[in-house]
Write a structure and sequence with these properties.
The complex is a heterodimer of chains A (540) and B (304).
Chain A lengths: L5 E12 L2 E13 L4 E5 L6 H8 L8 E10 L2 E2 L5 H7 L4 E4 L3 H4 L6 H10 L5 H14 L5 H4 L9 H12 L6 E5 L7 H18 L2 E6 L2 H7 L2 E6 L2 E7 H6 L4 H9 L15 E12 L2 E12 L3 E5 L6 H8 L7 E6 L2 E2 L5 H8 L2 E4 L3 H4 L6 H11 L9 H11 L16 H14 L4 E5 L7 H18 L2 E6 L2 H7 L2 E6 L2 E7 H6 L4 H9 L5 H16 L1
Parallel strand pairs in A: 3-8, 3-9, 6-7, 7-8, 13-18, 13-19, 16-17, 17-18
Antiparallel strand pairs in A: 1-2, 1-4, 4-5, 9-10, 11-12, 11-14, 14-15, 19-20
Helix pairs in contact in A: 4-5, 4-7, 5-7, 7-8, 8-21, 9-22, 11-18, 15-17, 16-17
Chain B lengths: L1 H28 L3 H5 L6 H10 L6 H13 L13 H36 L4 H15 L2 H15 L11 H31 L2 H9 L3 H29 L3 H6 L5 H10 L3 H29 L6
Helix pairs in contact in B: 1-13, 5-6, 5-8, 5-10, 5-13, 6-8, 7-8, 8-10, 9-10, 10-13, 12-13
The chains are: A alpha/beta (540), B mainly alpha (304).
Chain lengths: 540, 304
């Protein structure tokens, strides 16, 4: 058998930081052939991105340093090539697309110019490159290729920008495409389209695809083989189906076990009195209606999930309830009082009942405050809650409740991991003994294993403390495990609402059905079935 | 775009009007013009005549109205000391200053961009250290001292360059050289900082993944993004030069608007002072407008 196109052998990478030397990648080996799709699966800090950056010579050196290993591509060790020889490989033989296409496209040049540059950088004449760029834009499904050539990145949607990146990467028909979390920032329906496009293009060109992801669903959808990485090491390699069915390593088992969307669904009891009842909520910015005629009821101790893609208005609803955005119309009765019409003074007293946990704890926790200050701040503002003598004991209890240690109270947010920070944010919300917590994409930025823990924590608090939750999310499997009721939103309006069983087992609206169908299941067989169904639908 | 220019012009017009009012009344607060302009031994008859000719006996508001009316016709009155229209006197001086500022800032911008960009490319490298040190010294060296030292060394000591005046190309070298130093130091530092940011950005990573050569990565991909904060500083520095580099113009006997303004203030030649203020104010307004247009030109996300 001939040598595979790409062989990474015993690659090790170190980073020299102020805190000391970090071995980000340890003796990593994998290979990939033409026409094949290999996924590197791992959580944050697993070294998956560093490994792929090493192939493209994109590790910043210093502080990064490749300490051992070979990267053999088409018979040559890339690590032994000169900088100018590697430059000739990049973009021509190996190309790359990234997670966040907006920041990875140069904001001040037209997309046409940027696509043309890939080709002219490797010696193609400008008119020829231009003609090819036009063809590529059409091929990746950008409307009006001719007109789009002269537009700038900010004038496209997120999904279109990723298509532009793909057009740019594939301009010279590379043998290998590295895709680093290519769909993580995209909505589910867009994600499905982009992955389908990648597969089509792979079939056309026969390139090998190396996809870096944290998402088992993406692996199930697209990968032939998978490399599982944890803490800089490869823990398992194998056929995607095989690894999913019979994971050999405990870490892989943990990762598969943590994938959301497999637990039993909640069966909410019919309840008499809602604690919150929203009627005809509306928010208008200028001529644009962000939220239009949204109504729902929330029962005490229940979880309502508001689901939708970007721009659906789901976060605006949450912000209106807390009056972080002034509502344009409608009412929201909280135990009989209208939150939308309440004067500021009265609202102040109610604030402690309604708390919010945001998506990114790195931004929502003040970096200059210790955990102790963050938790006790609410007690300073609302002096009635707890006498000062009991603060210490209660703070310790709260930290314990969210799975942290009381002695961590003196630390600052940056000294914690992402999951721990979100626990701090939850402890902060709990300190005020709220009756409703609004979680705005509160677990979206977390690794799956951490996500599962945080969800479990929230559900436990709901049961033991009777707190009601409004859970805003774009990720359907997470919602399935946690919600009692689900409300699907699109373009500011409610598309469909019902119990979690109704929505997931029996969606009535085509949009809900499409949303569910676009979601990726971690099981490769389930995913293969869905794909077949999707293709049949597209064909017929 | 046009409405933006109109809005800016309107805002500037208001400041110009306030300026006109302030200059007129402040100059009157310094005393009776007849006493100020005429020699102390002038007779009462001469003073009366002077007031008659210049309409100083009319109510102050009438005088102000006449003064504004003349201004609208670009008539700033005559320079009392030079017996020529003040506007003409100032225009000549301003042209000198404008040439000095344009030449200096063009050189500064070109040099600072190249040096700052290369320093940012290898942070902490040999070139970066040299560039950072020189720019720090340049930004903090007092220009009057540099000017004097330069005259002592290049004119008096080596005899290569004239000490002052404007006769030939050689006369320009010292003033430009000295004026170059401080803005160069400042702008190199801003370019360097801004370029370090731009070079670590995601789009530069994309460019490297595309196989783009190093030089276009620095000067095409990163530089245009890095230029926005730089342009602000360039504007600031250029405005300072347009106002007239008083000290440098005086030291080198350069007939620019800064020197003219100081001379006219000392001689109480208020018509000239006012004309100089108005012309530099308008020049600075135009320059700020150009800077705003440069923003929009560099960054397609900025639209007015």
């Amino acid at each position: 058998m001939a040598e595979p196109m790409l062989q990474v052998k015993n690659l090790s990478v170190e980073f020299h930081t102020a805190a000391g030397t970090v071995r980000a990648v340890k003796n990593v080996s994998f290979d990939l052939d033409r026409g094949e799709t290999l996924a590197i699966l791992g959580e944050s800090g697993s070294g998956k991105s560093v490994s792929s950056s090493a192939i493209m010579d994109l590790i910043d050196m210093p502080p990064g340093r490749i300490t051992s290993g070979q990267i053999i591509f088409e018979g040559r060790d890339l690590l032994k090539l000169s900088a100018s020889e590697r430059r000739k490989v990049n973009g021509h033989k190996i190309a790359m697309i990234f997670q966040d296409p907006l920041s990875h496209l140069n904001p001040v040049y037209t997309v046409g110019w940027q696509i043309v540059e890939t080709m002219t950088a490797h010696g193609m004449s400008r008119p020829q490159a231009r003609a090819e760029a036009l063809r590529l834009l059409g091929r990746v499904g950008i409307p009006d290729p001719e007109g789009s050539m002269g537009k700038y990145p900010h004038q496209f949607s997120g999904g279109q920008r990723q298509r532009l990146m793909i057009a740019m990467a594939l301009a010279l028909k590379p043998d290998l495409l590295i895709a680093d979390e290519p769909t993580t920032a995209l909505d589910v329906t867009v994600q499905a389209e982009v992955l389908a496009l990648l597969e089509e293009l792979q079939q056309e060109t026969g390139m090998g695809v190396l996809i870096i992801t944290h998402d088992l669903g993406v692996v199930a959808e697209i990968a032939d083989r998978v490399v599982v990485m944890n803490a800089g090491e490869v823990v398992e390699t194998g056929d995607t189906r095989q690894v999913y069915r019979n994971p050999a390593h405990p870490y892989t088992r943990k990762l598969i076990g943590a994938a959301p969307g497999k637990g039993a669904m909640h069966d909410p009891l019919p309840s008499a009195e809602p604690v919150l009842s929203v009627r005809g909520a509306r928010k208008v910015y200028g001529d644009f209606a962000a939220v239009e005629d949204v109504s729902f009821d929330l029962m005490a101790g229940e979880t309502l999930a508001i689901v939708g893609e970007s721009g659906s208005g789901k976060s605006t609803v949450a912000k209106m309830l807390l009056r972080l955005e002034e509502p344009t119309g409608g009412q929201a009765l909280w135990k009989g009082q209208d939150l939308f019409a309440m004067p500021e003074r009265q609202l102040f007293a109610l604030r402690r009942d309604l708390q919010m946990v945001f998506q990114d704890p790195t931004q929502s926790l003040n970096p200059r405050m210790t955990v102790w200050q963050l938790i006790t701040e609410g007690w300073v503002i609302h002096p009635g809650i707890l006498p000062r003598s009991k603060w210490k004991a209660r703070a310790a209890e709260l930290l314990h409740q969210v799975g942290l240690k009381p002695e961590m109270a003196g630390r600052y947010p940056h000294q914690f991991s992402g999951g721990q920070r979100q626990r701090i944010a939850i402890a902060r919300a709990l300190a005020l003994e709220p009756e409703l917590i609004i979680c705005d994409e509160a677990v979206s930025a977390l690794d799956v294993s951490v996500q599962a823990q945080v969800i479990e924590l929230l559900d436990g608090l709901r049961k033991s403390l009777g707190i009601a939750f409004i859970f805003i999310a774009h990720d359907l499997p997470v919602v399935r495990d946690f919600a009692d009721h689900v409300m699907v939103m699109r373009k500011g309006r409610v598309v469909e609402a019902g119990t979690v069983r109704q929505i997931f087992d029996n969606p009535r609206q085509p949009y809900t059905q499409a949303l569910l169908a676009a979601g990726l299941d971690p099981d490769p067989d389930v995913q293969a079935e869905r794909r077949a169904a999707r293709l049949a639908m597209a064909a017929g | 775009m046009m409405s933006f220019i109109r809005k800016r012009a309107f805002a500037s017009l208001i400041s110009l009007i306030l300026l006109v009012v302030a200059v007129f009344f402040l100059s009157r607060l310094t005393g009776d013009p007849a006493a100020l302009y005429l020699p102390s031994e002038a007779s009462e008859e001469m003073r009366r005549q002077f007031r008659e000719i210049h309409g100083l006996n009319d109510p102050i508001l009438v005088q102000f109205g006449r003064y504004v009316w003349d201004l609208l016709h670009l008539d700033f009155g005559d320079s009392v000391r030079r017996a020529r229209p003040a506007f003409e006197v100032v225009s000549e001086a301003f042209l000198w200053t404008l040439q000095l500022a344009v030449i200096t800032m063009t050189l500064v911008t070109a040099a600072a961009i190249v040096v700052g960009s290369l320093a940012a490319f290898r942070v902490g490298g040999f070139f970066d250290r040299i560039a950072s040190l020189t720019s720090l010294i340049g930004a903090s060296a007092p220009d009057f001292w540099v000017a004097i030292v330069a005259i002592v060394v290049f004119s008096v000591g080596l005899g290569w360059l004239p000490t002052s005046g404007t006769g030939s190309v050689w006369h320009w070298i010292l003033p430009i050289g000295v004026l170059f130093i401080r803005p160069f130091g400042l702008i190199v530092q801003v370019v360097r900082g801004s370029m370090i940011n731009a070079l670590s950005s995601a789009y530069v990573k994309t460019a490297r993944a595309k196989g783009v050569r190093t030089r276009p990565i620095i000067f095409v991909h990163a530089l245009r993004n890095a230029m926005l904060p730089v342009i602000t500083v360039i504007g600031d520095q250029a405005a300072a030069l347009l106002n007239g580099a008083v000290v440098i113009e005086t030291i080198f006997g350069f007939p620019g608007v800064g020197k003219l303004m100081i001379d006219s203030i000392l001689q109480r030649d208020f018509n000239v002072v006012l004309a100089a203020i108005m012309i530099t104010a308008i020049a600075i307004f135009i320059m700020n407008l150009l800077i705003d247009l440069a923003y929009a030109l560099l960054d397609p996300r900025i639209r007015y």
